[in-house]
Amino acid sequence: MNIRLEKLNDLEASVLIEMSKADYQEKVDVQIKKIQKTASIRGFRPGKAPMGMIQKMYGKTVLADEIQQIASQKLNEFIEEQKLETLGYPIGSTRFDSKLDIENSEDFVFAFDLGLAPKFELDLTTKDKLDLFQIEVTDKEIDEDIEYARKRHAKLDDATISDAESIVYAEVNELGEDGQPLEGGVTAKSVSFVPSMIENKKLQKQFIGIEKGFTTTCDVRELFNNNESVLTSALAVAKEAIADLSGSFSVNVTEIKSRILPELNEDYFREVFPTETPANEAEYRERVKSNLEQYYKNEASLWLDHEIGHLIMSKHDIQLPDDFLKRWLMETKTEDYNAENIDEKYAQEKDALKRRLIIDKLAELHDLKAEQAEVIEEARLYYVGMYKQYGLDVSMIGQDFLNETIAKRLQEREFVGQMSDRVIYRKSYDKAREMISINDKKTSVEDYFKHVNKHKDTHGE
Question: Which of 29, 105, 185, 259 is most buried, taking the most CB atoms under 10 A from its CB?
């Protein structure tokens, strides 16, 4: 058997495996004998059919299977022996022809194309500087958080006239150009909204100071600030249909509720903080301040990781075997990639792959590994975070249920891989923090978000 590497460049290569009869015949004979022992062929007792008949009936199929298996095994061994760092998996070559004429030849050639991982040096030093924001919490933020919490814990009561913070319940119907209900349109959908949350100020004013039975028409998309997720849920339509909705909906107010905000007293403090309840308003404000400071500390840390991500990408001009990877994606993930969308989708895959290569380099240089205990803890953080998105916490679902769920998922190789990757990413970003210069920078909440929004606008995020 002859195996050789043909390099197109530093990022692309082909492997050719030339196979003769001596390389495969023994394995083919073993498989044919196994089939003979178990074959049930009309006219012969089981296992007694002549070898010539078995060979004629099954020989070509067995030959095809065996040479494929041998080629695959030898390819993997060759890649390992040559220490080739590949991207994706080998695929059939477009540079060299495979020769697999089983009917007329005893010699075969398998040709594979490979994408090779680029060689690069890690470039992170103390000359690279980023800010870790120390976000200062003022009375303004404390007051706003307290007011927000009071609204969340408010009791609802029937109201005769709406104000900016009332909850307005209404029935909406989609209208045609003639002002009549649109045939096949959205009909008799019950929705609710708070006037102060409507961004269109003119529309917002229409729903302040109104009574039950008030009727108007408007673009329902503006009622919900063109939020696709909210509109999809409220109107029970697909996201793709949002843009095609009529610009006119009738809105008939069916009910108005006012929120009765709780007083800042001992009962309320106990409701908000059931354990270690503040004794008075001063202690309550200190607790709110402490929580906000921790929240913004976490926020600033996550943002630093975000900017580290930009830094490592900007510092490493990594070239990839783009043509190979596009072809690999279209051949191995046919349900997601095709000739029409590959360029757009590959741009996203490319950035993710570059980032992964840098992370792998960090992990390799600093021997970063995901230990079992760390993987389990990462799985716990993953599920706690997921439950929080649904308004649940561990006390509501139970620690035993959480542990059982994690234990089951950790039996899945793919899930373990995902959690291990999360551990490695976190360790790599922590290591990057040690390698660069980080400046503690005091800032206000307002200025912090100005910085974040400016950054996102610059990078189209």
Answer: 259
Distances (CA, A) of 84 to 76, 91, 115, 256, 329: 10, 15, 10, 69, 20
**By C-alpha distance, which of 186, 196, 194 is closest to 231?**
186
CA angle 85-90-96, nearest 5°?
115
204, 195 in Cβ contact below 8 A? yes
DSSP class of 196 = G
The parts of the chain modelled with pLDDT lower than 70 are none
Q: Tens of pLDDT along 35-70?
A: 888 777 777 777 777 888 888 888 899 999 999 999
Of 228, 232, 246, 222, nearest to 173 by C-alpha is 246
72/294 Cα distance (integer angstroms): 54
Backbone φ, ψ for residue 66 (5° rounding): -70, -45
pLDDT number for residue 44:
76
List domains and CATH numbers for the chain.
2-116 (3.30.70.1050), 129-135+291-459 (1.10.3120), 155-260 (3.10.50.30)
Distant-in-sequence, close-in-space partners of 161: CB < 8 Å, separation ≥ 6: 209, 210, 211, 256
CB 62 within 8 A of CB 32: yes
Q: Say how far apart CA 152 and CA 282 lie, in whole Å.
A: 21
